[in-house]
Design a protein that fits this description.
The structure is a homodimer of 334-residue chains. Chain A is an all-alpha fold. The first copy, chain A, has a single domain (2-331), classed as Farnesyl Diphosphate Synthase (Orthogonal Bundle), CATH 1.10.600. Helices cover 73% and strands 1% of the residues of chain A. Chain A has helices at 2-9, 14-23, 31-39, 45-56, 61-85, 97-101, 103-123, 127-150, 159-164, 171-196, 201-228, 238-241, 248-256, 259-270, 276-287, 291-308, 317-331, and strands spanning 90-91, 94-95. Chain A has a two-stranded antiparallel ribbon. In chain A, strand 1 (90-91) and strand 2 form a beta hairpin. The longest helix of chain A is centred in the middle third of the chain and has 28 residues, at 201-228.
Chain lengths: 334, 334
């Protein structure tokens, strides 16, 4: 774990870049709102992926710095929005932007982030490609978030949302959703590093595939930790409280459960108010299935697939670090 | 008025362009959400300004079409956000996006609009200039909206907002706020038309000044109609209900009122719940001052200034139409 912390330190290099761009032309009173999301923590995984992908294909830190800052900022943009959508009050142990500064201010900060991204794109190397990649990635994020909402089983008092709600979610539908919600940004973070180093097509393809697979693995592990995690600093079963069927550990459990168990679990997810007793009941039902091992296996396979796709890249320290990050995603288990 | 309707028909040319861009890569189920804001009406003033500004400086409709669509879409982007911030339920006589499709869907639609704007910018003529103009304009909108919120006297339960709330607003502060909230987009809509026709600097300056002045006039008239308007289809005194001190008719009244009247009016604006009786009392207080005539005079002067700044442009039908739009802004009075 220590080694991974050292690797992720690389991603911290984007912090001053992000802050400098965010504060350009911002009103003095608005700056604390703009800084909060960035200052409240985060591991800078996406920025690290961009910088390492750039280095692993022959680029310098200087080449990758603005693209790395961009994709890290895209992530933080999506987090502010997520917290508005899910009415989140605490993230990474501190108040969310909406909780600390009010919802309208959080919304305006998110909009401001988006304009800042455009300024960054203008200054980034290989600008048109990176700008297009960013735009397509944000569109994917929007669609992923939209589907995640439609996979919820209750909690949005909206006839429109209710009319589209999906009470069954297949593996394919789940993978499509997390592909858009999470993996697209991992993929783009890696690919942007390749663009920044002006890497040849086979290297870009390798980075693309690597980012995609570890991005899927990352979300599978996030789902796992939500249901089975201990000492993660997060409350267990948040997805159950939020009626989210778009969690692979839940989907695995639903397949394994008998009709009665399946019905009971789905009923809990569909309750307008999920009590703590409900969460315990749901977790007990899930623990009685093979969900835990199946979910771990899936994450492991995705990580291994991701690592294998780096074969095309020359052996460098940066490539070894990318491999270590892939392992770290899986090892968040322990 | 008939003549102005005919002129504004020009702006409707952007509707199919906006729809085509919005529907690119959008999920089928998301399309009704994306279409609603555009289909729910609007006069297409901004698109018309871009197309006329382009024509008045020698460009064709083809040159100006995408820029016109862009600035009209920026406007609609800001309206979706405004309705989220002000919890708006009805706009132009129909349900707002957030009311009809839920707040998360409205938010995602707004984000999608922003990415669509980037796609449009990529295809627009003089792309880098227009993209920069759009970005700077959206940043102005954000700051204008932020200040408008800080000029409210109640209604946001947020220690942060309360700590920055301004209980006195000067004319200068008011003009800065509406400059950002409204006039910046009018200015940009005109300037974009000039960019699209590749107009020389003196023409760009003229369009810039024209857009700025009539944009200010437009907001002054909006404020006027909110307080004094009849048969506008909107409820009178919405700004009073929403605790907004950033309304020139209110500011004019506060200057004219004696200490007692001023105190009474400010107390109403600061009430957590403004009743219909309160609105009537406030309107009566305002009617007893010179606010009505002063506000009209201000709008008239701004419109005249705007028209004067078009002097530099050759006499064309398009210029005459720009003049007619300027007059229309002022004549919304009657």
């Amino acid at each position: 774990m220590k080694a991974v912390d050292r690797i992720l330190d690389l991603g911290r290099k984007v912090d001053p870049v992000i802050m400098e761009f965010l504060e350009r032309n911002a009103d003095r009173d608005f700056i604390p709102v703009l800084r909060h999301q960035i200052e409240s923590g985060g591991k800078r995984v996406r920025a690290t992926l961009t910088l390492l992908s750039c280095a692993a294909t022959g680029g310098s830190v200087k080449d990758g710095l603005i693209p790395a800052a961009m994709f890290e900022l895209v992530h933080n943009y999506s987090l502010i929005i997520d917290d508005i959508i899910d009415r989140g009050e605490v993230r990474r142990g501190v108040e969310t932007v909406r909780k600390k500064f009010s919802e309208p201010m959080a919304l305006l900060a998110a909009m401001f982030y988006r304009e800042t991204l455009d300024e960054m794109a203008e200054e980034a190397h290989s600008s048109p490609e990176i700008r297009r990649l960013m735009r397509e990635t944000i569109k994917e994020l929007i669609e992923g978030e939209r589907r995640d909402i439609l996979f919820e089983q209750a909690g949005r008092e909206s006839p429109y949302v209710e009319s589209l709600r999906m009470s069954d979610v297949s593996f394919r539908e789940y993978l499509e959703m997390i592909g858009k919600k999470t993996a697209a940004l991992f993929k783009a973070s890696c690919l942007a590093g390749g663009y920044a180093s002006k890497a040849p097509r086979p290297f870009l393809d390798a980075l693309n595939e690597f980012g995609w697979k570890i991005g899927l693995a990352f979300q599978v592990m996030d789902d796992y930790l939500d249901i089975f995690g201990e000492k993660t600093g997060k409350e267990r079963g948040k997805d159950i409280r939020e009626h989210k069927l778009g969690n692979i550990a839940l989907l695995h459990a639903l397949i394994d459960l008998d009709d009665e168990g399946r019905k009971a679990l789905k009923e809990i997810l569909s309750k307008t108010q999920v009590t703590e007793m409900d969460v315990v009941s749901a977790l007990t039902l899930i623990e009685g299935t093979d969900s835990r091992s199946k979910t771990i296996e899936l994450a492991k396979k995705l990580v291994e697939d991701g690592k294998a796709s780096l074969k095309a890249l020359p052996e460098t320290d940066a490539k070894a670090d990318l491999m270590a990050i892939a392992d770290f995603i899986y090892e968040r288990l322990y």
